[in-house]
TrEMBL record:
InterPro entries, A to Z: DUF3515
Skewed-composition ranges (Low complexity): 1-10
Top-rank taxon: Bacteria
Region of interest: Disordered: 1-26
Taxonomic classification: Bacteria, Bacillati, Actinomycetota, Actinomycetes, Streptosporangiales
Full protein name: DUF3515 domain-containing protein
Length: 183
């Protein structure tokens, strides 16, 4: 049932009189409006950032034309690890992001500088992933493919393997493997 502010105020006043507790002095609405507005509205200004509504800044890689075509064909899921797909800025078919903090994907990145033939890789459903930094990976790169795909997974979404499992089918379906032995 809907109750107007005035009627609930009247009930409150009657209860106050019945309990013999003096009611507070009326406040000036203009004083409330201007004095408390910054305090009351400040959390609302943070709401879009906290909810992840704005576009996420993800640097766009600059691959060659063949790699760009492969990456543009990548069909990514609408949700990863329960997080919805977000816009990226600058807008590019080579980048994607989910959630807040953002799980960020970049397709067509250069080969990771630290990657060696002897580097430890994690194999997830037929895709080899190279994690950096080695002691506690945050950024994972799908290697052994004709395009390198980099995924940054914030600590909030641990274990990172769950995120990589969800992205593996799209990468596997779109970006062909390199010949055996090539990373």
């Amino acid at each position: 049932m809907w109750t107007s502010w005035a009627s609930s105020s009247s009930r409150r006043s009657r209860r106050s009189r019945a309990s013999r507790v003096p009611s507070p002095a009326p406040l000036s609405t203009s004083r409330i409006r201007f004095r408390w507005a910054p305090v009351l509205l400040a959390p609302l200004a943070l709401l879009p950032a906290a909810c992840g509504d704005g576009a996420v800044e993800v640097p766009v890689p600059h691959p060659d034309a063949a790699t760009r075509r492969l990456c543009e064909g990548l069909r990514l899921p609408a949700k990863v690890h329960g997080q919805s797909l977000r816009d990226t800025k600058p807008d590019s078919q080579l980048t994607a992001a989910w959630g807040s903090p953002a799980i960020a994907l970049r397709c067509g990145v250069p080969i990771p500088a630290a990657l060696r033939q002897t580097s430890e890789l994690v194999d997830i459903n037929g895709i080899s992933w190279f994690g950096q930094p080695v002691d506690r990976p945050v950024t994972w790169t799908a290697v052994g493919r004709q395009a390198y795909v980099e995924v940054t997974v914030p600590a909030k979404y641990r274990p990172a393997g769950d995120v990589l499992i969800e992205l593996t089918p799209a990468i596997k379906a779109t970006i062909p493997a390199k010949p055996e032995g090539q990373i």
